[in-house]
Amino acid sequence: xxxxxxxxxxxxxxxxxxxxxxxxxxxxxxxxxxxxxxxxxxxxxxxxxxxxxxxxxxxxxxxxxxxxxxxxxxxxxxxxxxxxxxxxxxxxxxxxxxxxxxxxxxxxxxxxxxxxxxxxxxxxxxxxxxxxxxxxxxxxxxxxxxxxxxxxxxxxxxxxxxxxxxxxxxxxxxxxxxxxxxxxxxxxxxxxxxxxxxxxxxxxxxxxxxxxxxxxxxxxxxxxxxxxxxxxxxxxxxxxxxxxxxxxxxxxxxxxxxxxxxxxxxxxxxxxxxxxxxxxxxxxxxxxxxxxxx
Amino acid sequence: xxxxxxxxxxxxxxxxxxxxxxxxxxxxxxxxxxxxxxxxxxxxxxxxxxxxxxxxxxxxxxxxxxxxxxxxxxxxxxxxxxxxxxxxxxxxxxxxxxxxxxxxxxxxxxxxxxxxxxxxxxxxxxxxxxxxxxxxxxxxxxxxxxxxxxxxxxxxxxxxxxxxxxxxxxxxxxxxxxxxxxxxxxxxxxxxxxxxxxxxxxxxxxxxxxxxxxxxxxxxxxxxxxxxxxxxxxxxxxxxxxxxxxxxxxxxxxxxxxxxxxxxxxxxxxxxxxxxxxxxxxxxxxxxxxxxxx
Lengths: 294, 294
Prior knowledge:
By secondary structure, chain A is α/β, with parallel strands linked by helices. Chain A has helices spanning 32-40, 59-71, 85-88, 91-98, 110-117, 121-132, 142-145, 190-199, 277-286, and strands at 18-21, 47-52, 76-81, 102-105, 136-140, 150-152, 168-170, 178-181, 204-208, 212-216, 223-227, 230-235, 240-241, 254-263, 267-268.
């Protein structure tokens, strides 16, 4: 069925661009990832708000990003620091978020980020800015992990011992049906991402290297990889696995997992390049807008 | 076509057991990997020969394995140290190898191992012991990497920069159509194994964790994983990739790689467990005897 003129079609994305950064992005030299984020605001003089709620003190992160965005020529820069849920339920904070052309979610601890803003006015404003106003949202490290509905938190790097499980928590929900892991190659996180996918085979595992971003584009529903490393996608939907809950769980066996390695510079689904058939399904999952919270 | 009575059938393996160890196997405590190797010699009082040719000095490795095999109750233990190709072309050394029930190839540097024994009488004796006499052969670390026809040597852990390639060298050739990498999880070697498979899509990538062995069984053509970690199989035969030789090579893109994670304790193709259909092809590749050198 052809889309009606005013509703989004299958390949069309109403929400803004999403820039999912694997942490430790360059802030001093070429700043490729941050530069792309600023470009994607699509404004000549964009206003960037840096959301500092994942760290106990937002000051140090703000100082770094204030300087980096200034170096990139951004005139309008603002920190949104919040220490408590009261701060995150302040209508002024939510309004400030809605004035941003680009929202940058700094890292540290995704559990803290969600504990402070989950379900608050600021969380609702984030959804509105992204889904209704089409603003560009970036998250780095913990801020990247938190973007999806199901969020990794804690756990070692490897495949867990039998009888244990990596647990998932409720994330910000700007993306559905994926689970995001950051510092991916640098912290040897394939094992843990595989085990999360084994336990949650409805989710696509997205592993993002440091100084690398997966960009999910607003229009045309394309993907882009920016920066220095690669994005690893783990698709376990057709795998067979011995994972079953219960105390007598065995060591994890996975057969027939699909893995895709997308390097920086790769683009799919935009005008630049056709989507390989094996990736079409995943591109369609990633570019489906999240269900609005509010 | 049905196999004739005296030729090996499709699922039957004439050669001995192969115990491919990812390095750093326990030698002090439970010694699960070494114990399984001793069991697989199928002798009540086995004679174990430790081939020390991958290190400039075989003494230290021999001391460790002499003690470990003694602890496991092995009475007949012998080192085969060799410092030069002259040593490896000594008919006495080759004869000594042929008297062993189990041959253990110690690690260090697979390039040195091949430089010393490649094409020599000792190399021929290794093939004869394995393929004609059905003796059990183990290799650890460099000794594991060297077992296959195509051998990894050197290179960093990650995906190489565009324009460079991980090179392969000629290994001992006891296994065909695979490339083996060791210390796999511990040294973050997925990236390099993926890039080797991208460049050599006819080879199945076999990544073996430390204190873990992939056992390729003599009879019945089964696989077994022993020890503490897991074996990761990378099958790129159906992938699409942008890898092409040439100076203008791009960063590596891989779409539709198959990954299998086999934990310690897993057995396939023996009486214990049926082979999952997605693994049948790989089990058949791994259990096909290598082509004899001599």
